[in-house]
Design goal:
The protein is of the alpha/beta class. It has 17 helices and 16 strands. Strands 3-2-1-4-16 form a five-stranded parallel beta sheet. Strands 6-14-7-8-9 form a five-stranded parallel beta sheet. Strands 10, 11, 12 and 13 form a four-stranded antiparallel beta sheet that branches. Helix 8 packs parallel to helix 17 and helix 12 packs across helix 13. The chain binds flavin-adenine dinucleotide and iron/sulfur cluster. Iron/sulfur cluster binds next to helix 3 and helix 4.
Length: about 450
């Protein structure tokens, strides 16, 4: 039997419908396409894909179930290791993980593992309806933050019978999945479904509660919680510290995306103000920059430019997102660095342009990426009405200012040992709060590992 060389294409919303709506762009495989794609899997004995999955999903096994049209069986296999498959199937950087080491990828395109995971999860989206409550261990655990790290920790512990309460600073749970990643990439009903599943396992969600301000970590222990997990993420934006960053029309990507996603600024009757600029520059080249650029386009921008200091090859965003951004008309001004944000001639308090300097690539830095070097006398100005800064974030600092016995590293990350425990006994941490901005799957894996350590300690 000959193997199809390329992955089966993901059906997409047509470009013209995309740029004026927030509907999901990738529509998902049909049953026929999923089975045909599953048939490409070689069922390798050494399973390199499993070893490259941060949570070691039994990939060939779930793919075999798809071949047999047993989609529930496939879901059960994925669920053994992943608590958020409908989310991971949509946003994981599979090209550098499971698909990056797929044997088929040596000669042809790898098996579309992520698309198959999404297909299976979407087929079983109502599986939570059949969950029965688990017998309680009568031990309370507090989880701080409801992003993927907190959700995975909460889910793992709830399934073991702990009474888990998740405290979330914002008014809706989900962390970046809710406030950061836009609807057109990750529909919010998917995140809500996953949260509903956790509620069915008995997890209690308390929103609008900032740990470190409303209640301290010590007060949680006084309230009878036996362990605390900190999954507080890395939501503090970095700025460039250049002139003009305080002008109206300059946003951090986090603020811009939060206004649009969480506060629904894109809806016609929304009360949330957001500048619907016509010419937008987005600084940065990661997933956050792509999301901000594509969101600005959907809010009515006529021109959106990504300004990135390295070349297209070094762009850290997922390949698929870059392709979608290009299709939608986002322009890429690479090998450029911002020097100054310039006020408008008509109103000095608003953005009117941005001065850029051209760069070339020099020697690799300590992470192996070629360093951008600014070319003397190459500055020029482009006219824009808004600048969105997406050059990274650092861990949220609130816990730091109110819990002196929890220690932090130089980059603001919480220090943990091999069991995920911080320098304060019975306080655990994981996800972006520890590593700095990373990925959904790594945060989820850290939350699950910490939950297993908590269970082990409390079971002694
Ligand atoms: P978060 O998701 O940040 O959740 C932390 C939660 O803790 C937040 O809800 C916050 O409000 C809450 N919190 C903070 N402090 C407190 C406190 N003191 N008390 C109570 N609650 C608190 N990763 C991918 O794998 N693929 C992608 O395509 C991708 N795209 C992204 C796009 C955007 C726009 C962004 C911003 C990130 C993206 N990421 C992506 C990264 C990924 O979303 C994060 O790595 C992941 O969400 C980290 O999970 P977390 O649980 O550690 O933290
Ligand atoms: Fe299938 Fe690729 Fe995994 Fe081999 S490496 S089992 S072909 S998904």
């Amino acid at each position: 039997m000959s193997i199809q060389r390329k992955k089966h294409e993901m059906p997409l919303l047509p470009r013209e419908s995309r740029i004026c709506s927030f509907d999901e762009v990738a529509l998902g495989y049909s049953e026929e396409i999923a089975i045909a794609e599953a048939d490409r899997c070689l069922n390798c004995v050494n399973q390199p894909c499993v070893r490259s999955c941060p949570v070691n999903i039994a990939i060939p096994d779930f793919i075999s179930k798809i071949k047999q049209r047993d989609f529930k069986g496939a879901y059960d296999i994925i669920s053994e290791n992943s608590l958020l498959p409908a989310i991971c199937g949509r946003v994981c950087p599979q090209e550098t993980q499971c698909e990056g080491s797929c044997t088929l990828g040596i000669k042809f395109e790898p098996v579309a593992i992520g698309r198959l995971e999404r297909f299976v999860a979407d087929c079983n989206i109502n599986s939570a309806d059949k969950i029965n409550r688990i017998e309680s261990k009568n031990k309370k655990i507090a989880v701080v933050g409801s992003g993927p790290a907190g959700l995975a920790c909460a889910g793992t512990l709830a399934k073991k019978g702990y009474e888990v309460t998740v405290f979330e600073a914002l008014h809706r749970p989900g962390g970046v999945l809710t406030y950061g990643i836009p609807e057109f990439r990750l529909p919010k009903y998917i995140v809500e479904r996953e949260i509903e599943t956790l509620k069915k396992y008995g997890v209690n969600f308390v929103t609008n509660t900032v740990i470190g301000k409303t209640i301290t970590v010590d007060e949680l222990f006084e309230d009878g919680f036996k362990a605390v997990f900190l999954g507080t993420g890395a939501g503090l934006p970095r700025f460039m510290n250049i002139s003009g960053e305080n002008l109206n029309g300059v946003y951090s990507a986090n603020e811009f995306l939060t206004r649009v996603n969480l506060m629904k600024a894109y809806e016609e009757n929304s009360n949330t103000p957001v500048l619907r600029a016509k010419r937008v520059a987005v600084i940065g080249g990661g997933n956050v920059a792509m999301d901000a650029a594509r969101t600005a386009l959907r809010l009515g921008a006529e021109s959106v430019k990504i300004i990135y200091r390295r070349s297209m090859e070094e762009l850290p965003a997922r390949k698929e997102e870059v392709e979608h951004a290009k299709e939608e008309g986002i322009e890429f001004d690479v090998l450029r660095n911002p020097v100054e944000i310039i006020p408008s001639d008509t109103d000095k308090e608003f953005v009117g342009g941005i001065k850029l300097i051209k760069c070339e690539l020099g020697e690799p830095d300590e992470r192996g990426r070629r360093r951008p070097i600014e070319l003397p006398d190459s500055e020029y100005i482009i006219e824009v009405d808004s600048v969105i800064i997406a050059i990274g974030t650092t861990p949220n600092p609130l816990i730091r200012s109110t819990s002196s016995d929890i220690k932090f590293n130089m980059r603001g990350g919480i220090i943990i040992n091999d069991n995920g425990e911080t320098t304060k006994s019975d306080v655990y941490a994981g996800g972006d709060a520890v590593t700095g901005a990373a990925t959904v799957i790594l945060a989820m894996s850290a939350g699950k590992e910490a939950a297993l350590s908590i269970d082990e300690k409390l079971s002694k």
